[in-house]
Design a protein that fits this description.
By secondary structure, the chain is mainly alpha-helical. It has two domains: 69 residues, Orthogonal Bundle (Arc Repressor Mutant, subunit A), CATH 1.10.10.10; 142 residues, Four Helix Bundle (Hemerythrin (Met), subunit A), CATH 1.20.120.530. A three-stranded antiparallel beta sheet has the order 1-3-2. Strand 2 and strand 3 form a beta hairpin. Helix 1 packs across helix 3 and helix 4 packs across helix 7. The longest helix is centred in the middle third of the chain and has 25 residues. The protein is globular.
């Protein structure tokens, strides 16, 4: 609906704050669709088509795509719109390794700072949800609860910059988590490990919390490599690992 002219005959332009909110909304929606697999790797879409799909104007959609290109989620192709970036085996391995560093540090810091009872309760709730999902053989629910656990563990570090950076890598990791979960063995070990990490945090044992989680992440990296091999994903050219 056209806007009603103001008494001085000047149409008010959209404020900077509103434009930023629209751009942020477009960013979250597009990124969410990439992370959960709704927009799979290789998907190509013209900007007008994407804007129509989102029910938004082209400007905030374009601004969101520029941000997502900077973060490696999409490529902006002249006259062809955007293409969702693929994740190579090297990408997957390196994201996993970097995230492991952040999570191990978070576990150690959480145990050292003696987290609040409500933070421990949230971690316990996530593990309980993982246990229920595993009993029901519902890997989608398990994946959601496991993702929640890792976000909470990172947030328990108490370090704002670590949290902000690690969350970006956790979102990137979730792209391939959803693709690999169905191909892994029942993740009983993950549940047991997470519970052991929380107990180390509860008793204020930073060394054990870090060592337990480090061993878990190393095991997951080996399992992930095996899954990629079974799926026929070849190592990157020139890779030594």
């Amino acid at each position: 609906m056209p806007m009603t002219p103001s008494s001085d005959n000047h149409d008010p332009a959209p404020g900077a704050g509103e434009r930023e909110r629209q751009s942020d909304a477009a960013y979250r929606r597009i990124k969410g669709s990439i992370v959960d697999g709704t927009f799979p790797p290789g998907l190509q879409m013209l900007e007008p088509e994407l804007a129509l799909k989102l029910g938004m104007s082209r400007t905030p959609v374009h601004e969101a795509l520029v941000r997502l290109q900077d973060e490696g989620y999409v490529e902006i192709v002249p006259r062809r719109g955007m293409r969702v970036s693929a994740l190579s085996p090297r990408d997957i391995r390196e994201i996993t390794e970097v995230l492991a560093c952040f999570e191990v540090e978070a576990a150690e810091r959480a145990a050292a700072r003696r987290v609040a009872p409500e933070e421990l309760a949230a971690l316990d709730d996530a593990i309980a949800a993982m246990d229920r999902a595993l009993e029901a053989q519902d890997l989608d629910r398990w994946n959601e609860a496991d993702f929640r656990f890792h976000r909470l563990l990172i947030e328990c570090s108490g370090n704002r910059h670590l949290i902000e950076t690690a969350h970006r890598f956790l979102d990137k990791a979730n792209r391939y988590r959803t693709l690999t979960t169905a191909h892994r063995l029942p993740p009983v070990y993950s549940n047991v490990n997470h519970a052991a990490v929380v107990e180390a945090i509860r008793r204020g044992d930073p060394q054990s919390a870090a060592e337990i989680h480090r061993a878990h992440k190393r095991r997951w990296l080996r399992e992930l490599s095996d899954i990629l091999a079974r799926l026929g994903v070849a190592p990157d050219a020139g890779s030594t690992r």
